Amino acid sequence: MAIAKLDEKKPILEVKNLQKYFPVKSPLGRTKGQVKAVNDVSFELFEGETFGLVGESGCGKSTTGRSILRLIEPTGGKVLFNNQDILGISSNQLRKIRSEMQMVFQDPNNSLNPKKRIGQILEETLLIHNIGTKQERTDIVLDILKKVGLNEDRYYHYPHEFSGGQRQRIGLARALIVNPKIIICDESVSALDVSVQSQILNLLKKLQAEYKVTYLFIAHDISVVRHISDRVGVMYLGKMVEEGPTEQLISAPKHPYTKALLSSVPIAKPGMKKERIILEGEIPSPLNPPLGCNFHTRCPYAEEICRTKVPERTEVSPRHFTACHLVNEL
Question: 181, 46 in Cβ contact below 8 A?
Fold first, then answer.
């Protein structure tokens, strides 16, 4: 999606200073600290685009997705869906919005009821949102099965009779069946074989064009995110460190952490080499994150200002943002 087109549109979803802290209890039940899983994350999502959220395991990207949908309650911040802050509404109001914001989970096996047939699982979604008569719900389910590449006779099968890739198609069908405006894909291809990953990614693109749906695509593999995303946000230790149009961010990364992530992606061309950036040291604990820039303990370029002052989010080019004190020097 071109930058000029984004500038002409209003975001369908705005995440502002989102926070999710988990209390740490002592054996006596006293709170002795907080795990800052998501710490002041902001970004926008535009209608019809795919925004990729990438980072190492434990960086807070999945918690961000679940907090947006209030599957877990955020500690602070705002989530504006069509200019309405969904963090401040009642459970009844939230239920109405849930049909417009759906999620595809990482583990399709655990997200499907093993005691129910696939037809029952999908019809239950329609029943919860009071959509159609019994016959209409059956017809809708049969149609959505075909849309995700499954035969109609799969309606009568149980989850254990499907492969991992097929179960993920069912998870996608369950999200799409209520015609949502936004789908959050939480590591939805990470547990699949590479060939199956490609099939699901291509299916996501096809269904996006057909349903005009917007994706927040969460993954730890930046090469997968590159394949499907219009824009990418990079998270580290609960914070967004860089965000920008995909090809611009991939070809000209500004943050040292983004550069390290990209250097770890294998090159398919024989004989071609690139510099590998090795990050030394362990990822700091979100229970006690470093002062200043969160990344300074592992950054090969860190200076004194990085250890004492939190970097501000800076626009380095149109819609390309980074949080790094040394962005001009690097």
Answer: no
